[in-house]
Design brief:
This protein has 284 residues and is α+β, with helices and mostly antiparallel strands. It has one domain. It has six helices and 14 strands. The N terminus is likely disordered.
């Protein structure tokens, strides 16, 4: 049920000739409907805000409609063990993390975008650069291209057989996770140039070894044109993708304000200096 710690009065006057009052007592703002199982329906916008209508069939729509585990579901690592700190998140996305310590921050974005393209059968668009600059597409891997490490370099060889199964697709993603990261994702990102253009699917990123990134998974707007956002991430070790609280602004948590011109963006577990918000080059 929706958490609501306010007294709510419903008065229906016009045309009904009656009125009634309902009282609901709780202790935190009404912002989460625990009965709902998707991002867009579980997170209720603060007063004056409303969910933006995302383009049909877009990555943004895919993300805001993403299924969630039940409330209070713990963040688990790649070994299926709950991580130590469980106080930074408000929800966990219903998608596995795999069984190796690979699907971390940038990899979480790659996983979600790849799954989106797979769900739409847009196989030709699935492909990513490694940190080394080399590019590997799903089509190449499907056709048998594999990697061989020689010292500190990686080269491609044709030694596999054609396999277009989802199981093989997951093997492809594990390979991408191994050789890609925040540095390569940052290179493949195009800067978002205005605050009003930030949308689900964009990411806040600081490249490095390690760097970090968080993913915009929700956007709401008020009548004055101000936006608030939900942010999700994975972390180290590889763990469930989860939606973050906003400890820096409890009045709007779990929503975040984002500003491309801000010298820093403070999230639940990381401070981005500077604020760099990007969109993958293949997304309009």
């Amino acid at each position: 049920m929706a958490k609501n710690y306010q007294i709510v009065f419903f008065f229906f006057i016009l045309g009904f000739h009656h009125a009634f009052c309902q009282v609901v007592e709780t202790t935190v703002p009404m912002n989460i409907d625990e009965s709902k199982a998707a991002i867009r329906t579980r997170f209720i916008p603060p007063k004056g805000y409303a969910w933006e209508k995302e383009e049909r069939g877009s990555f943004s729509e895919y993300l805001v409609s993403f299924p969630l585990y039940p409330p209070s579901f713990p963040i688990r690592d790649f070994q299926d063990m709950p991580i130590e700190k469980q106080n930074h998140h408000v929800a966990v996305l219903k998608i596995d993390v795999g069984h190796k310590d690979l699907q971390q921050c940038a990899d979480a974005w790659i996983r979600l975008y790849s799954e989106f393209l797979w769900s739409q059968k847009r196989f030709d668009e699935i492909g990513f650069h490694f940190t080394s600059g080399q590019f590997l597409s799903w089509n190449d891997f499907r056709d048998g291209v594999r990697t061989i490490e020689t010292g500190r370099t990686v080269r491609f060889v044709n030694r596999g057989s054609f396999d277009d199964s989802y199981t093989n697709f997951r093997k492809y993603l594990r390979l991408v996770f191994q050789y890609a990261g925040t540095i390569s994702l940052d290179r493949e990102g195009v800067p978002v140039k205005s605050n009003s253009d930030i949308k689900p699917g964009d990411f806040v990123i600081v490249p490095g070894s390690p760097g970090h990134c968080v993913i915009v998974v929700g956007r709401i707007r008020n009548s004055a044109g101000k936006y608030l956002y939900l942010l999700a991430e994975s972390f180290m070790p590889a763990q469930d993708i989860h939606i973050l609280r906003n400890p820096a602004n409890s009045k709007i948590s779990p929503w975040y304000e984002l500003d491309i011109n801000s010298p820093e963006t403070v999230t639940a577990k990381y401070i981005f200096k500077p604020t760099s918000i990007k969109r993958f080059h293949g997304i309009k």
